[in-house]
Recover the amino acids of this structure.
């Protein structure tokens, strides 16, 4: 099912119960995040917001997790097999990162809150594991369905407004992917996507980037955990 969905629309969503059955290490990561004091998250968020002003919208939580647990999750056979079938080669884990996004003083979206394609790779997939409940209010993953099918259909800049993307894909559906904690999104990030700007609360997630090719500038033998 996830494979067919990715091929058709560019992304697939897996609910928490199904993911727990398919990828047991996901439960350990969710359990670890549940032990993080919410007031500490709020304090960290406010610190970054106040120090960076309108540009701050994210801070990393990766060091909250055990590195071996992250590698066990990212390297699980479900991901390697499913993504390998999709891209046609055994995927390479490029990096692993966890972060929180939260409301900021900026009037509009900033950085990855705007539509973008990831830097060009012929074969690339990202997974996004929601660590808290994600609604329309706290920054769901958003994807222009079908935009992964023709990466030559592009815009001149890296970040794009809603109007720019609507002009490029006038008939496409933009899906905002909400879900309970433990939900997973698997996406071909050659397509236009973003994390919507939170207006209330925060969004916490863990992402893993898989690629079938290796850029000339990439000197890392193993995945970057940051």
């Amino acid at each position: 099912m996830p494979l067919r969905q990715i091929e058709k629309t560019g992304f697939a969503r897996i609910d928490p119960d199904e993911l727990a059955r398919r990828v047991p290490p996901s439960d350990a990561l969710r359990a670890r995040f549940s032990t993080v004091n919410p007031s500490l998250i709020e304090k960290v968020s406010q610190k970054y917001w106040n120090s960076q002003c309108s540009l701050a919208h994210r801070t990393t939580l990766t060091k909250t997790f055990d590195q071996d647990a992250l590698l066990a999750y990212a390297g699980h056979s479900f991901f390697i097999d499913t993504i390998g079938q999709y891209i046609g080669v055994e995927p390479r884990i490029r990096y692993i990162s966890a972060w929180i996004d939260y409301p900021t003083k900026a009037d509009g979206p900033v950085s990855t809150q705007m539509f973008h394609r990831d830097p060009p790779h012929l074969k690339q997939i990202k997974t996004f594991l929601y660590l808290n409940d994600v609604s329309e209010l706290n920054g769901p993953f958003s994807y222009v369905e079908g935009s992964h099918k023709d990466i030559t259909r592009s815009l001149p800049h890296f970040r794009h407004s809603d109007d720019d993307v609507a002009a490029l894909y006038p008939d496409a559906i933009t899906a905002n992917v909400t879900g309970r904690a433990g939900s997973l999104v698997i996406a071909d990030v050659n397509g236009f996507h973003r994390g919507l700007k939170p207006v209330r609360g925060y969004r916490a997630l863990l992402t893993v980037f898989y690629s079938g090719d290796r850029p000339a500038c990439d000197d890392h033998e193993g995945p970057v955990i940051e």
Remarks:
- The chain has seven helices and ten strands.
- The first helix runs from residue 2 to 9.
- The chain has a mean pLDDT of 86.
